[in-house]
Amino acid sequence: MSTYLKQIASFTTNPDRTYIGQTFSVKEKCYDVIKSVVLYLMLSLIACIPIFSVLKLIDFLFKIDMAQVRDNFVKKSINKSDFIWVAALLAPIIEEVVFRLWLSFKKRDIVISLTLISLLIAVKLNGHHIYQLQVDEIIKLLGIATLSGIIILFLSRRIPTVEITNLAFKSIYWISCALFGLLHITNFGTFNWKIAWAYPFFVIPQLLLGCILGFIRIKDGLIWAIMVHCLVNFILVKL
């Protein structure tokens, strides 16, 4: 496990496209999935130390139970009957497409990611949360997104492909990992500026997960990153 941790840490600190184009067996990819889930759970346990310390400090100084704030907001954001399938399947798929599909820098993948992002923004501007919608409504929206993506992809065929430099790849990769983690600050509802300094501590597990998923997405492919994400969320929901 220590070797795998060093491999991910090395890639995270110096991401490159070495793995792109390489072929790995299904067996190797399955091992990567298992190792990634176990590694994340181990790192999360360690991350609980500073997180719980900050939670206790906030409770002592400001009389705010941030753990309760998060739980209440999540319950309002997701229909109770759909909680497991949303958390363990839908959310991982949406988040992987939004944050990591386009890391291939293929025009098709970029279009798909941008289309889904546009759809999520449109839903939010209409005063809804994607996970509050009913299953049939989500399926309809995904169908619309798919059709829109196909149209946009067809129209973008004449746009020339831009070569990505190694420096650009590193910067974009780091931004992807950071945004994935920071996005989960929204799990705590309305941003409280009095404790703004504490929010980065709350999302340490998501930042770690973003690094692991980014590595898997580049090395093994998006499907395998989704599998890791689904397994992690399923385990956390069941705990």
Q: What does it look like?
A:
The chain is an all-alpha fold and 239 residues long. It has a domain at 1-11 and 24-66 and 165-239. Helices cover 72% and strands 0% of the residues. The protein has helices at residues 2-13, 26-62, 66-77, 83-99, 107-125, 135-155, 166-183, 199-202, 204-219, 222-238. Helix 4 packs antiparallel against helix 10, helix 5 packs across helix 6 and helix 9 packs antiparallel against helix 10 (222-238). The two termini are 23 Å apart. The model has no long low-confidence stretch (mean pLDDT 84).
Can I get a quick summary?
The protein has 239 residues and is an all-alpha fold.
By DSSP (H or I, 4+ residues per run), the number of helices equals 10
Overall spatial form = globular
Report the structural category: mainly alpha
What is the helix content?
A: over 70%
Arithmetic mean pLDDT: 84
Describe the secondary-structure layout.
Elements: H1 2-13, H2 26-62, H3 66-77, H4 83-99, H5 107-125, H6 135-155, H7 166-183, H8 199-202, H9 204-219, H10 222-238
Which descriptors apply to this entry?
10 helices; single chain; mainly alpha; 239 residues
